[in-house]
Design a protein that fits this description.
The protein is α/β, with parallel strands linked by helices. Helix content is 35%, strand content 29%. Helix 3 runs parallel beside helix 5.
């Protein structure tokens, strides 16, 4: 089943009056169950494309479809609801709220959804336990290692049961061993829960795990390689 489709997507910025095509005519389809990586050097357009797919940025031209619905036809409050309920985000900088505990950080998207406090706690603790983070439930980010913070960020991204998780350089600030453990965890979530993951990364550890590798250069897709059979 198709989750994302981009049609001739462009994202152009101006740098000192000169147009820069960060994404330039990209056509991409993401199917349910993929574990895919957008790879390429810095400036290749992978993060910009990820932001456009996730409705964090708006294409200059072209269209993004989520479950067959054009994002350009959605009002701002509708896009906010889509980001809250259908897409989980994992950022390079973790983006945890420093004054909140791990439990509170994971619960926060459900606060925005209006989920009752008792259900929020139950669901957040279940995810933390599943990801071997229950012992950190009452710790704040400042008392955690980088790997622990990133695992909490993954827990927050999946607690709402999104169809799609977008991860921007999730291993960039982690050592090799911690990065491998994080990827093991996300691959398990992909295989067991059928969560679709799309990464933007130039980390060889991430690229090596990709079931689909989409390579970008100068804002365009130059290679699209399916490595692990056909997604169903």
């Amino acid at each position: 089943m198709e989750i994302i489709r981009t049609v001739d997507v462009e994202r152009t910025y101006e740098d000192k009056g000169v147009p820069v095509h960060a994404v330039n005519g990209v056509n991409l389809i993401v199917e349910q169950g993929e574990f895919s990586v957008l790879a390429g050097a810095s400036g290749s357009g992978k993060t910009t494309l990820l932001n456009v797919i996730g409705a964090l940025d708006v294409p200059t031209r072209g269209e993004v479809f989520l479950h067959g619905e054009a994002l350009s036809q959605k009002a701002g409050n509708e896009l906010s609801a889509i980001r809250l309920t259908k897409i989980g985000f994992v950022f390079q900088a973790y983006n945890l709220i420093p004054v909140l505990s791990a439990l509170e950080n994971v619960s926060f998207p459900m606060v925005l959804q209006g989920v009752a406090a008792s259900e929020r706690r139950e669901r957040a603790m279940a995810i933390l336990d599943e990801l071997d983070l229950a012992g950190l439930a009452h710790k704040r980010p400042g008392a955690m290692s980088g790997g622990q913070q990133q695992r909490v960020a993954v827990a927050r991204a999946i607690v709402t049961n999104p169809a799609l998780v977008l991860a921007d350089e999730p291993t960039a600030n982690l050592d090799s061993v911690t990065g491998h453990k994080l990827l093991d965890m996300m691959l398990r979530l992909n295989e067991e829960k059928k969560i679709t993951f799309v990464f933007a990364s130039h980390d060889e550890k991430v690229i090596a795990r990709a079931k689909r590798l989409v390579t970008m250069r100068d804002g365009q897709i130059i290679n699209d390689e399916l490595r692990d059979g056909v997604f169903t």
